[in-house]
Design a protein that fits this description.
By secondary structure, this protein is an alpha/beta fold. It has twelve helices and four strands; from the N terminus they run βββααβαααααααααα.
């Protein structure tokens, strides 16, 4: 049997239950554990089938898959809540608390850990990793959205390994479709097949279309295809509205041209692609 040692802080002389994580023994108080988790109370009040299970350091309750350091972080949180021990709120500590809390279904510590992890400004990749491991569904959509809108070059090799092939491919394919749609919209100024507006006429409308085409290529297309900070398709109408009206372009014709994009559903294409990527990642995580 591997050698064990008592934890220097969490071996309480008046404790009444012993746990072992790796080679470290913890002598704790059942009451402190049970007040946070009815599930835990049910587990440890049922017969385990092992004689003297948790009764002393020769018969500890072994915690497979939980390191001594992780269990220390979790116990530190439990006793911190009880007002006896200070507690740090760093990343390893919060992840450890979340891990053990998910295992033992301790809702208050799950919520507490997630709330404080949210304050650490974790990367989208790290949030997706934690969302998958510890069931944090509310992190999936914003993380996938962030990764889908960013350049793939922003994901380094280590992050790609964290995401895994399946999730990386979902994001890469969404990015590819989005880039294709952006190039398609940029390539053809909308509304050129429309008739003149009531405020225009056929002879002047040819000039309106020429002016609109130049404006589209010189302003809108450049922004849509910008290599580092491309204009979001959903922001296209707002961007056009903010630009000075080109000389010679009838305002009603301009409104008709822009409205062609709106009516075609082009402004929604980006959101539809992102939604598809989010749904695909959620479905994949549900299979794990």
């Amino acid at each position: 049997m591997a050698a064990t040692q008592r934890h220097p802080k969490y071996w309480f002389l008046d404790g009444n239950i012993v746990f072992q994580a790796d080679g470290t023994l913890f002598h704790l108080h059942q009451g402190v554990l049970f007040v946070h988790s009815p599930t835990l109370e049910n587990i440890f009040t049922l017969p385990s089938g092992v004689a003297n299970d948790g009764a002393d350091e020769d018969h500890p309750i072994v915690l497979p898959g939980i390191s001594g350091e992780e269990f220390e972080h979790f116990i530190s949180w439990l006793y911190h809540v009880s007002g006896t021990v200070p507690h740090d709120r760093n990343l390893p500590s919060l992840v450890a608390i979340l891990k053990v809390s998910r295992l033992w279904q301790i809702d208050n510590s799950i919520s507490w850990a997630i709330a404080h992890l949210d304050q650490l400004e974790l990367s989208a990749v790290h949030k997706l990793e934690l969302a998958c491991k510890y069931m944090i569904p509310q992190w999936i959509a914003p993380s996938v959205r962030s990764l889908t809108l960013a350049s793939l070059s922003a994901i380094d090799e280590d992050e790609a390994l964290i995401l895994g092939v399946r999730v990386y491919l979902i994001i890469a394919r969404a990015r590819e479709v989005m880039e294709t749609e952006r190039r398609t919209i940029a390539a053809v100024p909308p509304g050129l097949s429309l008739p003149p507006s009531p405020a225009c006429n056929i002879s002047h409308h040819a000039h309106c279309k020429d002016v609109w085409t130049r404006f589209w290529w010189q302003k809108v297309a450049r922004q849509l295809l910008h290599p580092y900070n491309p204009l979001a398709i959903s922001a296209l109408v707002e961007y056009v509205a903010q630009q000075a009206n080109p000389d010679g372009l009838n305002l009603e014709c301009k409104a008709s041209f822009v409205n062609q994009v709106v009516e075609s559903g082009g402004l929604e294409v980006e959101e539809n692609i992102i939604y598809g990527a989010i749904t695909a990642v959620e479905a994949y995580f549900n299979t794990l």
